[in-house]
Write a structure and sequence with these properties.
two-stranded antiparallel sheet
Length: 95
């Protein structure tokens, strides 16, 4: 978690589930709560970081390929989560 969300926990730190589900049914019509079944999905923080990554990589030149330095990739991942944290902080300040 970046400094932007320091002290935040739970829902405020992650934004909660990005695509919450109420549950699912099996073939017999039994309802299963998605959280109990591990179906909570990704958090909003993960989703925002992924969108930041997607936008960044879409703008890269053709020179960026499979030979990119792993340390650079790790740094960029930190930047994407920092962007996500900034979005969550801005969202929290507007509510």
């Amino acid at each position: 978690m970046s400094e932007l969300l320091k002290g935040a926990d739970g829902f405020k730190a992650t934004g909660g589930p990005a695509f919450p589900q109420s549950g699912a049914t099996d073939g017999d019509g039994d309802i299963f709560e998605s959280d109990r079944m591990g179906g909570g999905g990704m958090t909003l923080r993960d989703y925002l970081a992924a969108k930041a990554m997607q936008g960044d990589w879409a703008c890269q030149s053709d020179r960026v390929g499979n030979d990119i330095d792993i340390e650079l990739i790790k740094k960029r991942a930190e930047v994407y989560y920092c962007m996500a944290d900034a979005m969550l902080a801005a969202r929290a300040s507007n509510t």
